[in-house]
Design a protein that fits this description.
alpha/beta, Rossmann fold, Hnrnp arginine n-methyltransferase1, 6-stranded antiparallel sheet, 9 helices
Length: 344
């Protein structure tokens, strides 16, 4: 492949990523996520002393709602960075709300843009940097690049702390959905099953589906994280809650706006199956075979987050399960990608 074609391909991937967020139905879903909206609004409006007369950068501004929150909280200037075609729409939204003297909309990526000459650094970075399962389709690296380029020493990122969890669940419908490919209008499409089976599925998990206790596998502090390729593995230890069948491992996260300077108690939210619904829902990693378990048994294994060669904004998940119980055994290893960037 020539260099020009390689660069062109990279640009196409970035274009697809940003265009997905430019769809108004996606933005409407984000705005109707009451858990998300309340957490950000509380973190900003309940701590106006932190924002008063400060310079704020909103990374991945979308419809500009976080930029408007910051302007209302007293920021002297808000730089709303949006790469997609929504940038022009955000300018109209800002004008309609009489904030054009405070909110400056910049169309471009963090990697390519420059600050206006009169602004050298920012005091606060706002971003919804979390993707599904925390890292799939996330803006993690873009926010860290903005931090390293422009955030003042002692400045703040909101939210700044995330914790990643996994648990075993039942999902009796998955096998039937997967077997759909065996016979599609009389045609054998079972070869598609391999790709589908390696997809990390975003879905809503109920409390009733939980088969094990949760296991904390990772903590991310945006203040201290290095802007380098994500590649880590954590041991799993899942205590079974009830006798039954585990069909998948569910991945979810909590985030916190954890700042000592805040005048109000720390805000944040959880995407756990035990918490109220968010647009992130949960991310499911399905096992190739059902795992039969008995109450109080321990399922062990390894969970990993590794680079996705096909997606500059995402990661692959790795899952290894080692289990010997009274009702069954399993030794397995599997890699999962998001459905926009399947495994080769």
């Amino acid at each position: 492949m020539s260099l020009d074609k390689s660069v062109e391909g990279e640009e196409d991937k970035n274009s697809d990523y940003f265009d997905a967020f430019a769809r108004l139905e996606m933005q409407e879903l984000l705005l109707k996520d009451s858990v998300r909206m309340l957490a950000y609004r509380k973190a900003i409006w309940s701590n106006k002393k932190l924002f008063k007369d400060r310079i704020v950068m909103d990374v991945g501004s979308g419809t500009g709602i976080l930029a408007l929150f910051a302007a209302e909280a007293g920021a002297s200037k808000v730089i709303a960075v949006e790469c997609s075609g929504l940038a022009d729409t955000v300018k109209e939204v800002v004008k309609a709300n009489n904030k054009e003297n405070i909110v400056m909309v910049v169309k471009g990526t963090i990697e390519e843009m420059e600050l206006p000459k009169e602004i050298k650094q920012v005091d606060i970075i706002l971003a919804e940097w979390m993707g599904h399962g925390l890292y799939m389709g996330s803006m993690f690296h873009s926010v860290l690049q903005a931090r390293d380029k422009w955030l003042k020493p002692g400045g703040h990122i909101l939210p700044n702390l995330a914790k990643l969890y996994v648990a075993g669940i039942s999902d009796r419908n998955y096998a039937a959905n997967l077997n759909f490919w065996n016979n599609v209008e009389g045609f054998d499409m079972s070869s598609i099953k391999r790709t589908v089976s390696h997809e990390a599925v975003v879905d809503c998990v109920t409390i009733q589906q939980l088969m094990t206790e949760e296991c904390h596998v990772h903590t991310q502090d945006m203040n201290t994280a290095r802007n380098e390729t994500l590649n880590f593995h954590s041991n799993l230890r899942l205590k079974v809650l009830k006798t039954g069948v585990i069909h998948a491992i569910v991945v979810y996260f909590d985030v916190s706006f954890l700042l000592s300077e805040m005048t109000e108690s720390t805000s944040g939210f959880s995407t756990s199956p035990r918490a109220p619904w968010t647009h992130w829902e949960q991310t499911l990693l399905h096992l190739d075979k059902p795992l039969h378990v008995a109450s109080k048994e321990i399922v062990t294994g390894v969970f990993g987050v590794v680079p996705n060669a096909n997606d500059p904004h995402g990661q692959n998940f790795e899952l290894a399960i080692n289990f010997k119980g009274s009702l069954g055994t399993m030794e397995s290893f599997k890699i999962f990608s998001n459905n926009q960037n399947p495994l080769p």
